[in-house]
Amino acid sequence: MAQLTDDCFAFSGPLMPLDEAERLIRERVSPVAETETVPLIEARDRVMAADVRAPVSLPPFDNSAVDGYAVRHADLTPDAETALTVTERVLAGHGSAVTLASGAAVRIFTGAPMPAGADTVFMQEDVRVDGARVVVPPGLKPGANRRLAGEDIAAGDVALSAGTLLGAQHIALAAAVGLTSLPVRRRLRVAIFSTGDEVVEPGAARGPSAIFDANRYLLREMLARFGCTVSDLGILRDDPAVLAAALREAAARHDLVLTSGGVSTGEADHMRDALAGVGALTFWRLGIKPGRPVAMGVIQSAGGQQAAFVGLPGNPVAAFVTFARVVRPLLLQLAGAQSPAPEPMSVVAAFSYRKKKGRREYVRVSLRRRADGDHDAIKHPQDGAGIITSLTQTDGLLELPDDMTELKPGMRVGFLSYAALLG
Question: For residues 247 and 275, is the Cβ–Cβ distance under 8 A?
Fold first, then answer.
């Protein structure tokens, strides 16, 4: 199970700054310990558990980067054309049988091994063929269009380091050096459920005061991007005893229990009380908007197993933002992944906005490309944390710093695309 300390999120202030929450996650949360070896075809979105070194160099031999003619650069006339006799033809997958003699050239194709003695390749479109000879122009630098053995990675070098969150490019590198499997940490096990008497399953009968549950579907899809094994525990009613039992049971089988709803200050928001009986709620208010009433803590199961707990707000936009800025770094830390926070793109605000000092705010915007290649950020007309179309009709979020109080048109500000936020 995940290794956490009960005070890992402790904070005595009224609102915890987002940077502080992220720092504590990095410093106090340990990755899951269990590892396994998986074939390459199953390795995407997994996290490397150990360094893996390249068993062979890449490329394994000097080869041509283009279709053309391999030559000895020393044979070329510096300021005039040079005519060379074509003595051989080398295809990819085949080697040259002879060492290239002075005054000769070899017809070569992309990926074919460089003949012994050859050090430079002319592209076929840059030369002129004259019977059994090829006429090459002056000016090409020594070593042009030649790929050296090991220039990508040398045998024995670290190909993939521990903590790498594996994408298609990493798997391609592993395959290119001949690996067939990789050591990875096991998948994180995450339990999700929604809370609230007003929430019903999509497709079920909906009373006049009920809403369909969007949050579990939102969270499930976002968790899938991190390769988590997700247990969907459905919808729980606003009953502290029911909530406490569900939390305790989920902690026995999961690394993280993720809920939405019930963490605000209303009389029917029972999640904090439920958690108090089965674990430790160490903070529940962040300096972030939307999403201030996000809770984090530790749950203890009846058998002594421990799981992290995050209670997200019930409004879908707030749940989305707090997942991206709180749950994402927690998941990466639990998984042992070395993944930097997304870097905001600089854009130009096309609207005015006021905010309170001391909290990070995220404003839903669309981007409009300008004639000069820059981008204007255009605010969605609706701010509400329950407006799901404000996510579907925009491109991402403006990140307004804690100390900012006013945004004016023309000011530069950081923009985070939804793709960047969700990795």
Answer: yes
CATH class for the domain made up of 345-421: mainly beta
Read off the tokens for 394: 């925009």
Say what the pLDDT of residue 268 is.
42
* Dist CA 341 CA 410 (whole Å): 26
Q: Is the pLDDT of residue 26 over 90?
A: no
The residues spanned by each domain of the chain are 18-34+186-335, 63-147, 345-421
Q: How far does Cα 71 stand from its chain's mean position?
A: 44
What share of the chain in percent tops pLDDT 90?
74
Asked if 94 and 112 count as a contact pair (C-beta separation under 8 A), the reply is: yes
Report the alpha-carbon distance of residue 388 to residue 225 in Å, rounded: 20
Nearest to 335 by CA among 186, 235, 203, 201: 186
Enter the pTM of the model. 0.85
Please give the mean pLDDT across all residues of the chain. Answer: 91
Tokens matching residue 366: 């669309």
Give the CATH number of domain 63-147: 2.170.190.11
CB atoms inside a 10 Å sphere around CB 389: 11
- Residues 84, 107: Cα–Cα separation, whole Å: 11
DSSP per-residue string spanning 313-370? -SSHHHHHHHIIIIIHHHHHHHHT---PPPPPEEEEE-S-EE--TTSEEEEEEEEEE-
Q: What integer is the mean pLDDT of 230-252?
A: 90
Quickly name the fold that domain 18-34+186-335 has. Molybdenum Cofactor Biosythetic Enzyme; Chain A (3.40.980)
